[in-house]
Design goal:
single chain; 488 residues; alpha/beta; Cyclin A, domain 1; eight-stranded parallel barrel
Length: 488
Amino acid sequence: MANVQLVETSLRDGNQCLWGALGIDTAKTLTIAPVMERCGFKAIDFTTSTHMGVAVRYKQENPWERIRAMAEICRDTPLQFLSTGFRFIAWETASPEFMELAFRTLANNGIRRFALADPMNDAAANVEVAKMVKRAGGEQVIGALVYTISPIHDDAHYAQAARVMAESPDIDAFYIKDPGGLLTSQRARTLIPAILAEIGDKPLELHAHCTIGLAERAYLDGADLGISALQCASGGAADGTSNPPIQRTIKNLREMGHTVEIDDDAVAEVARYFTALAEAEGMPTGAPMPFDAAYFHHQLPGGMVGTMRRHLSDHRVPHLEGAVIEELGRVREELGWPIVMTPFAQMLQTQAVMNVTAEERYSVIPDEIIRYALGKFGRPNVPIASNVMDKIMANPRTKELDAETGMAPLSELRKRIGANLSDEEFLLRATMPANLVDAMAQKGPAPREYNPKARPVIELLRRLLQREDLTHVTVEKAGFRLQLEAKA
């Protein structure tokens, strides 16, 4: 039996799946960081460019400051940055020079591990990005094999992608990234050996979601089959549409005869913290999910199912949900079987809704679908259906969008935005509205401590102080008394 390592995902993926990427700020991160460092994790799935943008836009916090502070604490545990290729914060395609600057700045601030997940499973593109990361000072590069179900995503597809990436000296390890939680035990028993046969002695990790209750079983099967590390979340940040809960995974691995070298007390403290955080902030906690066979058809991430239902309800057509799900499958096939992950999940859902609600299919085509057809999101796995491509090419917007050049060259951006800015500030101002970056800078350094136990008291006082009908407020408990009086 194997020694299985663990990658902790609460701060990035758990936060994104259950809390819309809004549940974590710098104080909440740094408060638990020393305990996470003690756990003995192989790595911490820490951030993405999307999360960095959220820090600026919604928290008015400097994401570079957060990375540096976390890296100062986690000296033994590598922090991971997840990249989807040639974009950083903005959706525009960035130049290689811009991306290399972004990777170098991330590495200089403390990111040591880079996971590369091309939404098309374009192995050659991952190889090129890996070269860039290593030139920029990244220590570890993990190549993702993004799992999905379609007629073209068979074991041979993944074996071929693994073979191409395994030949690269810049890719150190691999992981099967299953954003939909679709990997069954039966498929794991053929897929994992097919990939391991191509990657030699490079490690293979597994990352899956609990969306329809399959991930935990797949994790245990994966450990038996040679998976070296499993990616899990903790406490209230686990389960549901998030990743498998770390404590239950450890218990089951050991029960199956595997070794997990971890500080169990520290792991338990991390789990309690994320549960307490969710309860204090009124955020949902994950719970075991029932199996849903319909999910294999639409494959929408859990959060997007809710978005679809809200959209249909807003347009007073909730009864069309079944039709939209059926249409989504047709659209995915017509567009060359893109993997249902960001950005394609949103694009497929939007087109399916428009096709169902419009008088004619593809009479309305979103700009992002046109950009996809023009190759601005990578190469489709198979050609787009000819009748659909004809409609896209005949659309008046296609010519305009085809003329887009993406982000300006790095030298031009430097000249336009400010030649004397630090790399950190330049990257933010090149990818975000100036007023948001200004607001972040004006707010100053973020708090570094958070106490979930104090949150209810603070919220109570805030609400009481908003009341104009109160002149005295007294808060009492054993050994404590706080009295507030309005000034005459």
